[in-house]
Design a protein that fits this description.
Layout (H helix, E strand, L loop, with lengths): L10 H12 L1 H16 L3 H23 L8 H9 L1 H34 L2 H4 L3 H17 L2 H30 L17 H16 L1 H6 L8 H31 L4 H6 L3 H9 L1 H35 L19 H22 L1 H33 L5 H23 L10 H25 L1 H5 L9
């Protein structure tokens, strides 16, 4: 069977693929408003703390990527450390986590953005053809192959970075005497500390896909055991600094005490950039649409590679999902499946909650799968380190202490979303996330008893340099 095309991606392509996954301009338009509704004037602190939590997650991916080369990403890391049963359970959560994020952000998020300028789109069912069209365009870009799509990410990602930083500097200057460190006070959040903890769900989700976006394409990277870890660091620093700076600039320019109206506003990012310059407004509008598409490309690429790895190890998906287009190096059956699945999820949640809230419900529920995935993977790093009797000081910190911190923080944030439950519609997302996780565990147990030999091999396939 033909495999993925090796040695296709250098550092530059990897870094901007990571940028595309986090989609900063789209986050400014969509995700920042959801965070602001909960964090209010403490939005910059929420995004900063979210980044620090993400760094503990990054530590695990960084260390595993120096050891294993596999399109399975966390699925493989867990399989190599905890065995096939936990890898299969991890796989089911990866399936739901990536699918919910893909449909919620890139599909319904972009639809909601268009609805800001054409409200009839959201008040009728005209948004459904738009969701289908977005999926078809993304399918085409994915099918053309990873070098084609990463060329797109490099060009548009750099332009997006320049415009966002220019606009942020302009907003800080316009804010003048309103610049303040008070925005780093968690008690400014809605309801104080509980509201601030609720906001961290979306703040961590802002970054959390980055590690999978790069580790899932390790088989196609040049010198992957060197370049994947390096690109994880470069992308994270670039994106973290950009997000924290932009959230600060927008909060002080809008007014820390007025952030409820920011969260309810029709794209406050565009409003603020217009105050700086109509030219920046126009560029941000174009690049925001592109940013959503960049996320679709990066997320879709990750999903096709992870699903390919499931199929290759003969779990969750049939062997046909690992078929590769020889010319483009694309797992084409997995790509078709993603198209169908994301359309179904987008329509179901869009009809149930409306396109905008439906996207937030999917993203909030995705956090439960994502946080559990990262907790299991961090546990894998701890176990694999424990099995190695020789543990130095560096390994003790990076392979034991930081993963323990990551698990503790992630589980604390998740627990905070049940005691008490967040407001509508996030309360539905919390319940949905837990129900699906429990269902995934039952499916894994059932599969284990029906096909123990298949489960035993899950997550075991890796490549060598």
């Amino acid at each position: 069977m033909d495999g993925l095309h090796r040695n296709s991606l250098g550092i530059l392509r990897l870094v901007w693929q990571g940028w595309g996954m986090t989609a900063p301009a789209a986050d400014v338009a969509y995700l920042f408003t959801g965070i602001a509704l909960l964090a209010l004037g403490a939005t910059p602190l929420s995004i900063l703390i979210g980044f620090l939590i993400y760094l503990t997650i990054l530590n695990t991916s960084y260390r595993f990527s120096k050891k294993y080369i596999s399109a399975g990403s966390d699925f493989t890391y867990v399989g190599k450390s905890l065995g096939g049963f936990m890898a299969t359970f991890e796989g089911w959560n990866l399936l739901f986590g990536t699918a919910f994020a893909y449909a919620g952000f890139g599909m319904l998020g972009l639809t909601a953005f268009f609805g800001l300028f054409y409200p009839t789109l959201l008040s009728t069912y005209l948004w459904i053809p738009l969701v289908i069209a977005i999926n078809l365009i993304t399918f085409f870009l994915l099918y053309k192959g990873i070098r084609f799509s990463t060329n797109y990410q490099i060009i548009t990602g750099f332009a997006e970075f320049v415009v966002l930083i220019a606009g942020g500097i302009g907003l800080v200057i316009l804010a003048g005497k309103n610049n303040t460190l008070a925005v780093f006070n968690p008690f400014l959040a809605a309801g104080g500390i509980p509201g601030f903890l609720h906001s961290l769900i979306l703040s961590v989700v802002t970054y959390i896909g980055l590690s999978i976006a790069l580790t899932a394409i390790s088989e196609e990277s040049k010198i992957p055991k060197r370049n994947i870890p390096k690109s994880l660091i470069i992308s994270s620093v670039l994106i973290g600094a950009t997000f924290v700076f932009l959230s600060y600039a927008m909060t002080v320019a809008w007014g820390p005490l007025n952030m409820l109206s920011y969260g309810k506003s029709n794209d406050p990012g565009l409003i603020l950039f217009y105050r700086v310059s109509p030219v920046l407004f126009g560029l941000l509008f174009i690049l925001t649409i592109n940013s959503f598409m960049g996320n679709n490309i990066a997320m879709g690429t990750s999903m096709t590679r992870i699903f390919y790895a499931f199929s290759r190890d003969n779990v969750i998906f049939p062997k046909s999902f690992s078929k590769i287009n020889k010319k483009n190096g694309t797992p084409y059956i997995s790509t078709v499946f993603i198209l169908i699945l994301s359309v179904i999820l987008g329509i179901i949640f869009g009809i149930s909650f409306g396109p905008e809230d439906g996207g937030f419900v999917l993203l909030f529920a995705d956090a439960f799968f994502s946080f559990l995935i990262r907790s299991i993977t961090s546990s894998s790093l701890i176990i694999s380190t424990y099995k190695n009797k020789k543990i130095g000081i560096t390994a003790l910190l990076g392979n034991l202490v930081i993963p323990l911190i990551s698990i503790a923080v992630l589980l604390t944030v998740l627990a905070s979303n049940f005691f008490p439950l967040p407001v509508y519609p996030y309360n539905y997302a919390s319940i949905l996330g837990i129900v699906i996780i429990i269902a995934s565990l039952f499916v894994t147990v059932y599969t284990y008893y029906k096909n123990p030999e298949t489960i035993g091999n899950a997550g075991k396939t890796t490549l060598e340099d």
